[in-house]
């Protein structure tokens, strides 16, 4: 377990200043979205809120490590099949791509796919440009993917 944690890479996607209105005025804090992955087949998303950016990043990384998922990849480091998913107003489409085409995606979707270890994929964001919702939509889509072995086992 220790060697796995050392291999994880963290990337900060968004740092947002948020306020809460209380009796004495406005209370300022920061919300940080971090993607954590090992570039092999594990990826997770974490959110942290604190009054300082550094402590919010630390909380987000800890949350991301708790929420790691396994991503089934085929032999040319692509996803096994086409998948479409939405989260809130954000909707994404992921398509497998041929060897050498690279990750064709934008924003938070690209970061999630790169840290998951997907090297050849076509992705399109539809609807919202919200980084958090697009990242969640990608994570949920990757969670729904089924490997070739799982599909064959289900058919038998």
Question: Could you walk me through the main structural features you see in this protein, from its secondary elements to its overall organization?
Answer:
- With 156 residues, the chain is of the alpha+beta class.
- It has two domains: 2-69, 2-Layer Sandwich (Double Stranded RNA Binding Domain); 71-155, Ribosomal Protein S5, domain 2 (2-Layer Sandwich).
- The chain contains five helices and eight strands.
- It has helices spanning 2-7, 53-66, 107-116, 131-144, 148-155, and strands at 9-22, 25-37, 42-50, 69-70, 83-87, 90-96, 103-104, 121-127.
- The strands form two sheets. The chain has a four-stranded antiparallel β-sheet with strand order 1-2-3-4. Strands 5-6-8-7 form a four-stranded mixed β-sheet.
- Strand 5 (83-87) and strand 6 (90-96) form a beta hairpin.
- It is elongated, with a radius of gyration of 17 Å.
- The mean pLDDT is 92.
Q: Give the helix tally.
A: 5
Question: Radius of gyration in whole Å, from Cα?
Answer: 17 Å
Biggest beta-sheet profile: 4 strands, antiparallel
Strand content bin:
35-45%
**Approximate shape:** elongated
What is the level 1 CATH name of the largest domain? Alpha Beta
Category by helix and strand content: alpha+beta
Question: Percent range for helical residues?
Answer: 25-40%
Can you write the helix and strand succession as a string?
HEEEHEEEEHEHH
Distance between the termini: 34 Å
Look at the structure and give the mean pLDDT. Answer: 92
Q: Please name the CATH topology of the largest domain.
A: Ribosomal Protein S5, domain 2
User: Largest beta sheet: what is the strand line-up?
Assistant: 1-2-3-4
Keywords: Chloroplast, Plastid, Ribonucleoprotein, Ribosomal protein, RNA-binding, rRNA-binding
Subcellular location: Plastid, Chloroplast
Subunit structure: Part of the 30S ribosomal subunit. Contacts protein S4.
Protein name: Small ribosomal subunit protein uS5c
